[in-house]
């Protein structure tokens, strides 16, 4: 009896803890989208959550009913509460096969349409003009990010500036291990893979600084492979790009090779891009870094305190 | 060559582990010698082909592996809750999550379930042993040596560190030099071959050795789940074998299947891995479903609801399990159409699984539920597994998965299904069949303590991780560098230690029950509520299982037998029983192959070739082995049965 009493007290805590958790959800990055792509994914998640909540409520209530009503020692059990030979009912089994099928269908339609939408630049909001996406090549190497802006002729390392209210077309590739570009506030991720290119459309509607990172494990420096995304107005963005173009040094092939060495590097900016002399998205550029730095890949970094890294702030 | 090239040096935690391993080994050697148990160990265990003893060895090894994997888990949780402590560095953390994942799936969950199948399936179908007892011993030793090989990696040579999925090109020779990744390849390869053999062995056993009259749709549900699992094993494991072999050839002999440098196809690894890896998930969950079905029916004292639907849903799940592997890399840019197809097929798995959940609930309807420890594990599974199942559907929605992928949301999901499904089932099944294995029950009071500690620990540990994922925390991160993540991580760590405590109490219960539990007198241990044939045998079970094999033509045959006052034993029908002889050959053959694998790991080709030759010689010897076993005479059977039945 004692244990049962205890359990019912604990059961009371479940809704309470749920409320506590859910009140914190407003701040969860994924549930607090800052752009149309993250928004559409958030809508889909929210939509699915209602179905999931429904399933949980139904199963939990049935479960509670069964174990309370049909426990062996319940006072006031009737003779009719036990029927050891009851072992099937076709009608009810068909019902609980069809209802989940309907739920799956209802989840499939928005999933499929969203999937097709995500392959295109986000649609402009009503009354706004569609803008050409800004193309940014995002290339990873162990363990840093290169962002090349062919239109502006500039390249940044480990940080990103983007204009708001304009789609960004990321062209993802990697110089060595497989990674993934993930900026949760702006939308979901895709893989960067050597020798090929994947496309990811994202867009920021609000100005601000967002966290971005590599989310696919790629070795020792994985945790430090993060970057900040500075979303700012078109004007500010242009001014920033121009400043980099005027003030930063050009990215020479030697400098780029130096940067590709396995290890961590700080933020950096250049007034030209590496796309002019190497394309990691083609089969030809594929083994290039591994060949050059085969010996360096054997060395351990022994990272135990990466907070000192400037890129990590 | 220098000793530091082989032994792992420079880590205080690893030095401590080395010392404790040395001490435990010396203690075992001393005790075996002191009590003169070497002969006993060899005669009774190392050479056994008895499915019940092999099953017990599987389960003991799996419990040891659960301890190892659990220690890994707690070390990771300490690191994540106290990032400033500098407990683990990045490299060490990477090795730990890699071995945690690999050990828990390959060397804990699967062997634990295969151990239960080993003991119970022949009993449930009225068979005297496996179809191929020799191969069964071979399978066990291949798993055992594979697991040992994998486990020594952290003191000798260094652990693998590319994650349990071991994605290329990261896990290739260029970016992960040294023996660590080879340990992963050879450890999995060696034990994988045993698993494949077990799959074939059990499949033949179930299809060919059922008691007379027993049709497929008369089989107990756990046997059904085993049969379906065996089909998955037989179709999925060859893919793993090939993938591991290709990567081994890449790493050791310089081929270019998955490399960047020679126009290899690194992404092909992800495909091959998950073509095996996704069905693998069902290899460890379907037997769990079978165990829960048996336990719920027994302690609800009622026939399982919707037996046919339960069987068909397992078959459908097995088929679908091969059609969804791409959902592990929706983010690989395969395009909207491909992702749509795999998204829908993934969500469809929820339908047969839902049918099963409702059938279990319906089994409880109009029942008399007895809250024994085994039943509590089985009941706790239902609400816990639902929380993992619904988030699985959410992950299956590819467009949303772009946000969940590689995040703690995923980590929470798969721990919710694997722990609430497989681990709860392992504990439930062990407690439930314990009297059959050891002739006494586990203590119920201590068992309930273990249950509640583990159950609450589990939810406290993994529920917060859904929210960490939604806040953008990726998996495999060795340091929580964002302040907002810290509180939930600390809660999660507290839960992990709750689970650790629950496991400790569970293991203590094994010792306590061995000393103090009442010995079983009858074979039908759970107050006479057994429904299937394993409860119709005496306890302890004679080595030939059934003196006379019963005729079966219905589900739950033992219920009717009891109603009619019959037993499986009919003295007038006794005949000599043919049994296989014990042999040390499987142990020796696998020891040779393990030696060869060890040589390959360090690329010592002479050792590798020597081990291989040893293995081949053992195979040749086996092919000239004319020992066809022996017969147990009627007098002997009569003596054993009369003693056990108190006649």
TrEMBL record, chain A:
The gene is qoxA. It holds the Pfam family COX2_TM. Residues 22-122 form the Cytochrome oxidase subunit II transmembrane region profile domain. It comes from the Bacteria. The chain crosses the membrane at residues 49-68, 94-116. Keywords: Cell membrane, Electron transport, Membrane, Oxidoreductase, Respiratory chain, Signal, Transmembrane, Transmembrane helix, Transport. Belongs to the cytochrome c oxidase subunit 2 family. GO terms for biological process: ATP synthesis coupled electron transport. The keyword Oxidoreductase applies. Its EC number is 1.10.3.-. The keyword Signal applies. This is Quinol oxidase subunit 2. InterPro entries: CcO_II (IPR045187), CcO_II-like_C (IPR002429), Cupredoxin (IPR008972), CuRO_UO_II (IPR034227), Cyt_c_oxidase_su2_TM_dom (IPR011759), Cyt_c_oxidase_su2_TM_sf (IPR036257), Cyt_o_ubiquinol_oxidase_su2 (IPR006333), QoxA (IPR006332). It catalyses: 2 a quinol + O2 = 2 a quinone + 2 H2O. It is an enzyme of class 1 (oxidoreductase). GO terms for molecular function: copper ion binding; cytochrome bo3 ubiquinol oxidase activity; cytochrome-c oxidase activity; oxidoreductase activity, acting on diphenols and related substances as donors, oxygen as acceptor. Signal peptide: none annotated. It is a multi-pass membrane protein. Catalyzes quinol oxidation with the concomitant reduction of oxygen to water. Subunit II transfers the electrons from a quinol to the binuclear center of the catalytic subunit I. GO terms for cellular component: plasma membrane. It is found in: Cell membrane. Residues 131-243 form the Cytochrome oxidase subunit II copper A binding domain.
UniProtKB/TrEMBL annotation, chain B:
The keyword Ion transport applies. The chain crosses the membrane at residues 12-35, 56-76, 96-121, 133-156, 183-209, 221-249, 281-299, 311-330, 336-362, 374-400, 412-434, 446-468, 488-512, 604-621. It comes from the Bacteria. It is found in: Cell membrane. Heme A3. Binds a copper B center. Its EC number is 1.10.3.-. It is a multi-pass membrane protein. PROSITE patterns: COX1 (PS50855). One of its GO terms (biological process) is oxidative phosphorylation. GO terms for molecular function: copper ion binding; cytochrome-c oxidase activity; heme binding; oxidoreductase activity, acting on diphenols and related substances as donors, oxygen as acceptor. Its main location: membrane. Residues 34-553 form the Cytochrome oxidase subunit I profile domain. It catalyses: 4 Fe(II)-[cytochrome c] + O2 + 8 H(+)(in) = 4 Fe(III)-[cytochrome c] + 2 H2O + 4 H(+)(out); 2 a quinol + O2 = 2 a quinone + 2 H2O. Pathway: Energy metabolism; oxidative phosphorylation. It is an enzyme of class 1 (oxidoreductase). The keyword Ubl conjugation does not apply. GO terms for cellular component: plasma membrane; respiratory chain complex. Coiled coil: none annotated. Its cofactor is ferriheme a; Cu cation. Catalyzes quinol oxidation with the concomitant reduction of oxygen to water. Belongs to the heme-copper respiratory oxidase family. This is Quinol oxidase subunit 1. The gene is qoxB.
